[in-house]
Structures are given as structure tokens and as C-alpha cells.
Amino acid sequence: MPDLKLFVAPNTCARVPTIALEEIGVPFDTELIRTAANQQNSAEFLKLNPKGKVPTLLINGTPLTENVAILSWLNATFPDAGLLPRSNSALEALQQTADLAFFSATVHPTVTRVAMPLKFIEDKELSFEIVRPVGIEAMNKIMAMIDARLKSGPWWYGDAWSVVDGYLFWVWARILGVGYPGDAYRNIQRHHDLSIARPAIQRAMLREEKNIEILKSEGLYIPPR
């Protein structure tokens, strides 16, 4: 059994591999990175991940970064956990990688424009007046496509949950948390409600809630806005 430690921060996409690890059911530790204190850019953390980002997964002391790689490694290492459907061909496996990449490379940057517009324009007023509306417009197109896909089944791949659903769970919660108008996307809302009921997701959220309490006690918690 590999020794696993996941570096996380509340509300970030580190929630996705946390969910994956809880679904697998193997022992793992999480270490909180205090982004408000710029800990992600500390010399110690940059030795593990020079990009200064979470998630970072230590596997027997060796770091692996980027959600697509982390989730793919977990799926390959623990195939019986069902993080992704068993593929019947190399092409089918790559299509699953493409789904993860879609969330990582297309959806996630749009989430950032909606949830963290200050990353693009330092002026607070302009960021919320210009960047966020553009992000919402782009997100509407993405959410319409995802909502249409979910008509054929409760999960991304139909009847079976996958870690792609864990990614969608984070995306939806993150944008709703800053006021994204999502009432029209009933299939995604149903997906979110089903996701919340999963014990593994409840355990992942409990870990996150404990970290939020730690940050609050240290005066370092920045709530979504």
C-alpha cells in the first residue's frame, strides 16, 4: 500500500482528489496549505511543487501534480475502486482522459473567472464588473452542454458514478458559492443533490470543514465572494 499525502486548501480543486481517495477507501493524510499566508509559495512547498499549487499528491514521498495526472494515477493504481469506467480500448481510455482534461483545462479556468476575478484584474470593482460577467457568459454555455449530457443518466457516464462527477461536484459548488445563477440547469442540480448523499463526498467535505475551522481560528480564512 503506498504512503499517500495530499496537500489541500479549502474550496480549491484539491477537493476532487480528496473525494477520489475517500471513494477508494485507502488510508491517506491531508496537509493544509494556508494560501492566505502565501504558504503555497514557501521554499518548502516549492521544492515539492515548483508551480506553487494544490493539489499535490505525495506518493511514497514523490510528488505528483495536476488533477488529470493525479486522478489517472489513482484510477490505474486502484482499478477496483471504479473511479473511471473500465475501458475496452486505448481510444476509450483516452476519451476518459479527455473528459478529465475538459474539466481541468476548459471548465476550471472559467470557474476562476467567475469565482476569483481578482486574479485577472487587480482593481476589485473592475474585476467584478468586467471579468465575472464574461466568465458567467462562458460558463452558461458550458453548463448548458453538461446539463444536456446528464439527461441520459444521473452521472457523467450514465448509471455509474466516476471521478469526473467528483470534478463536476466541485465546479458546481464553487460557482454557486459566489452567486452563479444556476436555476435553469435542473439536471446538474439533481447531480449535485445525488453527489452530496455519497458517503465518500461527505467524508471529503468533513475534512474540508475541519481545515476551514483551522483557518478561521488563525484568522486566515477567506470565504468565497
> Which range best describes the helical content: under 10%, 10-25%, 25-40%, 40-55%, 55-70% or over 70%?
40-55%
Strand order of the largest sheet: 2-1-3-4
Number of helices: 8
Structural class: alpha+beta
- Stretches with pLDDT under 50, minimum 5 residues: none
How many separate domains? 2
The proportion of strand residues reads 5-15%
Number of strands: 4
Can you walk me through this structure?
The protein is α+β, with helices and mostly antiparallel strands and 225 residues long. 55% of the residues lie in helices and 8% in strands. The chain has eight helices and four strands; from the N terminus they run E-H-E-H-E-E-H-H-H-H-H-H. Strands 2-1-3-4 form a four-stranded mixed beta sheet, covered by helices on one side. The longest helix is centred in the middle third of the chain and has 26 residues, at 90-115.
Quick overview of this protein structure:
The chain has helices at 15-24, 43-48, 67-77, 90-115, 124-149, 163-176, 186-196, 199-217, and strands at 4-8, 29-32, 56-59, 62-65. With 225 residues, it is α+β, with helices and mostly antiparallel strands.
Notable features of this structure?
8% strand; Glutathione S-transferase Yfyf (Class Pi), Chain A, domain 2; alpha+beta; Glutaredoxin; 2 domains; 225 residues; single chain; 4-stranded mixed beta sheet
Question: How are the SSEs placed, and which strands pair?
Answer:
Layout: E1 4-8, H1 15-24, E2 29-32, H2 43-48, E3 56-59, E4 62-65, H3 67-77, H4 90-115, H5 124-149, H6 163-176, H7 186-196, H8 199-217
Parallel strand pairs: 1-2
Antiparallel strand pairs: 1-3, 3-4
Helix pairs in contact: 1-3, 1-6, 1-8, 3-4, 4-5, 4-6, 6-7
